[in-house]
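Justification of resources, computational component.

The compute hours requested in this renewal are based largely on the per-chain cost of generating structure records like the one below. Each record pairs the submitted sequence with a full structure-token output. That output is archived, and it is also reused by downstream analysis tasks.
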Amino acid sequence: MGTHTTDSLHPLPLPTTQAGRDGLAALLARPRDAVIGLDFDGTLAPIVADPEQARAHPGAVPALAALAPEVASVAVITGRPPEVAVRYGGFADVPGLEHLTVLGHYGAERWEAATGTVTAPPPHPGVAAARAELPGLLERAGAGQGTWIEEKGRALAVHTRRAADPQAAFDALRGPLAGLATRHGLIVEPGRLVLELRPPGMDKGVALLDHARATRAGCVVYVGDDLGDLPAFAAVDELRAAGTPGLLVCSGSTEVTELAERADLVVAGPEGVVTLLRDLATHLS
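The structure output for this chain reads:
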């Protein structure tokens, strides 16, 4: 998890890679050029058995409100509909978050705190077609009780966390869901005991790159916890290769190790993310 900088009141953890240390140095030196991108579930909000009960960590909004005025942009990038992330996060009408952006459905929909409105293109027709077939497919696959469908508007997610054997149900559904997705021009994105069907070309990497370029970011930080965040990590790598410093932070869990292995810095879940955001705000204010 790295050592810490020397500020005795609010020490910042030191990234374990040179690229990460360069990204943190750039953020501290030129915060007004920095874009901070964050996942929602597992990063700002603890993972819970029922995603409808997910709420941001109590310290997340105060930490973001302290940090946001010091940087170019803060963007929450999530697979959820943006209005759901805004509601579960408590992001609306918060002093300090007037310029927060929520990129929902992996960037297909955009909510701006400044206007409180969502902009979005028409939905992909394959989602509706897959939605109609999905209950029968789950029954035929014998996924069992506790497996359920989350309606996400522009995507569908099948959760197995509440099944008797969550991993076995997850494994049993990967093939059938991949076939369903292919038939309707969709892709399947695996996550932490969840399989999401969504249109191709929608991922957090595309969303982060578009936002970073639109804001002319001079530094990019991204914080995530799950496999769906890997494209955003790859986007930061792409930006770093082109000369824009970046920092990759993993909101650590024992369920997903791939992100921790790719990260410059690992923190202890949403509590660690909140601490990092709060301490960054202190350093920059």
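The CA atoms of residues 80 and 152 lie 6 Å apart. Confidence is low (pLDDT under 50) at residues 1-8.
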